[in-house]
Design a protein that fits this description.
With 297 residues, the protein is α/β, with parallel strands linked by helices. It has ten helices and eight strands.
């Protein structure tokens, strides 16, 4: 794992979650450690936190520009700084034990602690069982399941020292309707492995006050991963922007961790709990009744 110079000065982590002037909770001064985050939903979550003045540590593989994907961990860090946060960009692989351990240590050294872990890194392949390449199967299992477990595991000691510690994983509700396994078994196993990690960690660390939850979009979200799929350019026309997931994540992460744990939220559900009912501002143009529901729901 390699780290570039930290962007922004920032403040030490583990500050009490403050109240903004409007009475809304804020992530100001909190330290977030995220896997991935160079683009898409992860970057949107990071930028929403940065607008509060949060410290964001990004560990992602994309240190150099990708021929098919916009953004690197360094460009993301600059965007976080421009949005008002402090950033520490780290080039690393969530599958690598040393990289993950190094990211946790770097976050603690740079910002004084960790308040939030966001398990955002994920790989997707919707191939049927006869067609899935086992290297792709292993990639999904290693990034989605093992990576989520590993980053969470290595962060526990630091989270225990926070006054409002959260782990948020971007994974779906555990839906045992056989159709989801039947559609794309390899991917379903990988995503449900992430969700089982949420279920187990929430129970194991309930007494420590660590809030562990999963968040999943109710509709398709416009991301590079979707756009690069066959027909993806058409699919995203019936999608929402990543900002809806970012706003929902912000709401979860500013809640009391002792009262908010073991949940499998959708973005719409969280925002409705916050009093929001009009989601048209997140649409990319399609009417609400023509948006494509996300899978697993």
């Amino acid at each position: 794992m390699t780290a570039s110079n930290a962007v922004g000065d920032g403040t030490a982590g583990n500050e009490t979650t403050e109240q903004a002037p409007q009475g809304k909770a804020t992530l100001r001064g909190r330290t977030i450690l995220m896997s991935g985050g160079s683009r898409g939903i992860g970057l949107a979550i990071a930028l929403r936190a940065a607008r509060d003045g949060a410290n964001v540590v990004l560990m992602a593989k994309t240190g150099e520009p990708h021929p098919k994907l916009d953004g690197t961990v360094h460009t993301a860090a600059q965007q976080i700084e421009d949005a008002g946060g402090a950033a520490l960009p780290l080039v690393g692989d969530v599958r690598n034990d040393d990289d993950v351990a190094g990211a946790v240590a770097a976050a603690v050294e740079r910002f004084g602690g960790i308040d939030v872990v966001v398990n955002n890194a994920s790989a997707i392949d919707l191939s049927k069982t006869p067609d899935i390449d086992m290297k792709r199967y292993d990639l999904m299992a290693d990034i989605n399941v093992r990576g989520t477990f590993l980053l969470s595991k290595f962060s526990i000691d630091a989270l225990r020292r926070s006054d409002n510690p959260h782990i948020l994983t971007l994974s779906p509700p555990l839906n045992l309707d056989p159709r989801w396994a039947g559609k794309h078994l390899a991917y379903t196993l990988a995503k449900y492995g992430m969700s089982l990690t949420t279920l187990g960690l929430a129970e194991e660390f309930r007494a420590d006050g660590i809030g562990v939850n999963s968040l999943w979009p109710a509709t398709l979200i416009d991301t590079a991963a979707i756009r690069n799929m066959p027909g993806g350019g058409t699919m995203v026309q019936a999608a929402r922007s990543p900002e809806i997931v970012a706003d929902a994540a912000h709401a979860v992460l500013t809640r009391n961790s002792r009262d908010c744990t073991g949940n499998f939220f959708t973005d719409e559900e969280v925002l409705r709990q916050e009093g929001e009912t009009d989601f048209t501002g997140y649409s990319l143009g399609a009417p609400e009744d023509r948006l494509v529901p996300d899978i697993f729901l």
